[in-house]
Amino acid sequence: MSDDDAADDRSERIALLDAGFAAAIPHNRALGMRFIDYGPGEAQMLLPYSERLIGNPETRVLHGGAISALLDACSGAAVFTKLGLVASIATLDLRIDYLKPATPDRDVVCTARCFKATKHVAFVRALAYHDDESDPIAAAAGSFMLFEGGRRVVQSGGSP
Fold it and tell me: Can you list the domains of the chain with their CATH numbers?
């Protein structure tokens, strides 16, 4: 497979993940979230800036709830890439530290890493930022309940 074919294949997989998350979770679609990238136990998503999501009209900063939703969705996606399958999960706990306001008129990126998955619980850390993970808007630590069942959509190694 050439580098161009591999890139096309990866783009198609990201598009499939995007479509699946939008179809399964209408809230993600309503907020305009989309996948940027993924890997084994990792996911990266984007929340596009939208005037509909402004929390304070005077500052034009995105509402913290939209950033919370991004952290939660991206963390869940990281769990799926860790497990290698889509199964029912539920957020048990999501602690979010807001470190600074998002910059008005700028998209927000989130990177999440599932660092441990047991039979019933997965553990994730995530950062929301603009350009650089070392300058985060918010940081999250979460745990997710894993339910039995599911269908394999990601082969081991993080490829759908």
Answer: 3-152 (3.10.129.10)
